[in-house]
Design goal:
Layout: E1 2-5, E2 9-10, H1 19-45, H2 49-75, E3 80-84, E4 90-92, H3 97-108, H4 110-118, H5 134-149, E5 156-158, E6 162-165, E7 172-175, E8 179-185, E9 190-195, E10 202-205, H6 206-209, H7 213-225, H8 237-247, E11 249-250
Helix pairs in contact: 1-2, 2-3, 2-4
Protein name: Murein endopeptidase
Transmembrane segments: 25-45, 51-76, 96-119, 131-148
Organism: Microbacterium testaceum (strain StLB037)
Length: 252
């Protein structure tokens, strides 16, 4: 995978800034850290072993979530595109580490349940301490959904024949004749793709594209509107990206 910082491309459409998304993630990260710190304080002063184990497990989970949110915030880079240079077509691909981090968090959801079992409250029906036992169930469901979604190629691939991929809020495998409106909505900034028949839009944020949605939208519109340029997609991602960048007016 190759990370490329490009000048902001423009084809006459408005850009949705990413700075607001980064600020919101910073707030979420700060709140999560504050709650985790409060739980750590409770663990430090509590005399009950059960409370210490349970709240300690939740604090570790919140620290992991805060770290994940921080990594997502670092992913938001204006003008950056990440492409897979292997094979034909232009593939915008997200890095692997956000998914790996999310899997780790889902596995950590089992910690509070382990704490409940250790302190011996697993058999108490409807006990307040029994509720964490539901977290592994939620984790297993989420992991099953993630495994099911692996059938869809990560990111978005542009080929001579059409576009396919995305694991966010939908997946697609469209010919160029089926591609309708291509835009960016926000905040948070997200690429939106709609079929010509008015099908419900497929959306993808930078988390699922690995690239600035504004840049991706401009490039997709370029190849949608210029069929004569699509042959270069057979030569690989770098050649196609260079051609689109040359054709689109940089926005200073």
């Amino acid at each position: 995978m190759k990370k490329i910082l490009m000048r902001r491309l423009s084809d006459g459409r408005a850009h949705i800034p990413l700075a607001g998304d980064a600020r919101r993630l910073s707030v979420v990260q700060g709140v999560t850290i504050a709650i985790a710190a409060g739980l750590v304080l409770i663990v430090a002063v509590a005399d009950d072993l059960g409370i210490r184990l349970l709240f300690g497990a939740f604090s570790l989970l919140l620290v992991a979530i805060a770290a994940y949110v921080g990594c997502l915030r670092r992913l938001l880079e204006t003008g950056v595109v990440r492409i897979d240079t292997r094979g034909p077509g232009l593939r915008f691909r997200p890095p692997v580490w956000p998914t790996a981090f999310l899997v780790a968090i889902l596995l950590l959801l089992a910690l509070p349940a382990v704490a409940v079992v250790v302190i011996g409250d697993a058999g108490e029906a409807l006990s307040p301490r029994r509720s964490p036992l539901l977290l592994p169930v939620f984790s297993a469901i989420c992991l099953a959904v993630m495994i099911w979604r692996l059938r869809v190629p990560a990111g978005l691939r542009l080929t001579v024949d059409g576009i396919r991929g995305i694991r966010a809020r939908g997946d697609l495998a469209w010919s160029w004749d089926e591609v309708g409106e291509v835009g960016v909505d926000g905040p948070p900034a997200a690429l939106t793709l709609t079929m010509k028949d008015g099908y419900v839009p497929v959306t993808a944020s930078m988390r699922y594209l690995g690239s600035d949605p504004n840049q991706v939208a401009a490039i997709v519109r370029f190849f949608r509107d210029h069929p004569e340029e699509r042959a270069i997609l057979a030569r690989g991602g770098q050649a196609a990206l260079d051609r689109a960048a040359d054709a689109l007016r940089p926005l200073d």
